[in-house]
Amino acid sequence: MRLNPRYLMVFCVVAELRSLSRAAEVLHLSQPAISKTLKALEDIFRQPLYERTAKGIVLTEAGRALLPYACAVSRSLAQATRFIEEQRTRRTPAFTVGLSWSLIPRFQAALLRWAEAEGGRTRFDLHLVHGTTLELIEQVYQRDLDGALVLGGSEALPEPLEARRVTTDEAMLAVAPSHPWAGLGGIALGQLEGARVLVPQRNSRLRLRLEQFLEGHGIVPERFVECGSLLGVKAAALDGLGVGIVCRSFIEPEVSTGALKGLFIEDPGFALGVHWIGHPEPTLGLTVRELTASLLGALRHVRVPDSASGQVSTGAR
């Protein structure tokens, strides 16, 4: 016996609607085609499955017994059809990653190279979003981002977010080559007493760390000059407008060309972890989970050139 699954689908629709004409409309078939299909099913079953009455189609005992199986097949066919259609029209999955402004020079090129290499194995589009650490953590929490690479960010995370340490960076001071401190390798922050300090926006982790230290030690600069972002701090330092708070990797390109001088902070507490912020793995989809693992494996090998010694380092001094 060869049973066409479509016979069962038609039978299920007719039984549910109790009308050949309405079933024909729903299935976009002619009424004779519906009748022919039901007749073929009855021939296979060797029993009448329904009767026509003034009130519509009424199933026989054999028809009522067959109905659950017929409707199960009908539902499976509909689900399979939807699945195939979704697969045919599905857009390329997106992997949306946040990157702190401070980490762009060190990690952006590595992120793009990783996406190009990984794209040969997994079909996806990388969407890259920049922001401060606090902004990106909030976007990960709201699931607007699949994860974010941030400077610091492991303290007091909202549940259920998790922080995975990738590597380290460190806060530094940046000055123009013409600045009186340009010849120094490093300074204690007490020397900022009476100095003009260039700082990024108020929700910057670097600024918060610096201000907490200065306040805790009673150090009062001449003034804080808010530059809007780390890019603004770097631009102002290049113009010789003061001493900027930055992270080491952020000014590495300018330090390597001599356009800026980087001063290591001699006080403790300015080594900063670089963390991946994300939701717990079990709550992630398979594609995001696999892409995250691959990305973190690649990022752990990104190194920061040490312009002062001509060597490279993955951690803070």
UniProtKB/TrEMBL annotation:
- Gene3D superfamilies per UniProt: Periplasmic binding protein-like II, Winged helix-like DNA-binding domain superfamily/Winged helix DNA-binding domain
- Family annotation (CDD domains): PBP2_LTTR_substrate (cd05466)
| Record keyword DNA-binding present | yes
Signal peptide (UniProt feature, chain positions): none
Describe the location of the HTH lysR-type domain by residue ranges.
Answer: 3-60
Record keywords: DNA-binding, Transcription, Transcription regulation
Note the Pfam families from the entry. HTH_1, LysR_substrate
Q: Give the family per the record.
A: Belongs to the LysR transcriptional regulatory family.
UniProt name for this protein: HTH-type transcriptional regulator GltR
